[in-house]
Structures are given as C-alpha cells and as structure tokens.
Design brief:
The termini are far apart. This protein is mainly α. It is built from three helices and two strands.
C-alpha cells in the first residue's frame, strides 16, 4: 500500500507544475493497481477540502 499525501493529490488534481504533475500522474495512473493500492488518510482529505 502506498500512502498518498496532500501534495501528491493536489499536484495530480491541479496539474499546475509540469515536472511535479507528471511525476504524480505517473504514480497514480501507472503504479497503483489492485495489488498495490493507494491510501489517502482522513487528514489528507480534510486538508484538500
């Protein structure tokens, strides 16, 4: 399981920095799957909102 912090989620959603957005997109869209799941904590969800 991979923990996803606020910065990763925000970069993925905002796509505001070319290098960092590409890195987060690569992690979320290619490295996560049924066997290697991502985890977003309640604190991260609250920080995003």
């Amino acid at each position: 399981m991979i923990g996803l912090d606020t910065n990763v989620i925000i970069r993925y959603l905002a796509q505001d920095d070319v290098n960092q957005s590409a890195a987060t997109t690569q992690i979320i869209e290619t490295q996560l799957n049924e066997n290697k799941q991502g985890f977003i904590s309640l604190i991260v969800l609250v920080e995003i909102i």
